[in-house]
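ok so I'm stuck.
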Amino acid sequence: MAESERPSSQPDFWDVRYEREAHLFGTAPNAFVAQEAHRLPSASEVVEVGAGEGRTLAWLAREHGHSTTAVDFSHEALATAARWADEYDLPLDTIQADVRTWVPERQRDAALVTFLQLLPDERPRLYRLLRHIVRPGGWILGEWFRPDHLTGGYDRMGPSTADRMVPVEEVPGSVGRSPT
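replied:
not stuck anymore, here's the structure
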């Protein structure tokens, strides 16, 4: 089995997890994105790849008035995102797609990626996607698992092998910005 065919790389694996545990990663926005959200101009169009249940996008729409789009391959995760959007009357669209093959139809003001676990040979395409999807002058906000997550006092979430973690030195040349 190829690494990209591992169960954790497939939509069914994540559908089961999201179906079994409501709000698998919580309901609060990603802390890094919440800290950096002031960088985004008001009423921005924001897309998150690997958005899961859309908790961060829901927060950006509710607290900052952004129009948001969640891209994820899990039907169950996107169903939760859509319920949140309906419940709070938020401008949140969903696109069920695998970010490893998704081709966006248009650009946005900002792109988010938080803790998306891709293999080393899959990440260059992700970085190209992020650069392509953001309009000139826009923002890419990203946070990944780093190799020190294997030895640090981190919670149960995250990959158990370094191949799905992103060395900090990989990011600046890949997305065109320095890490914060």
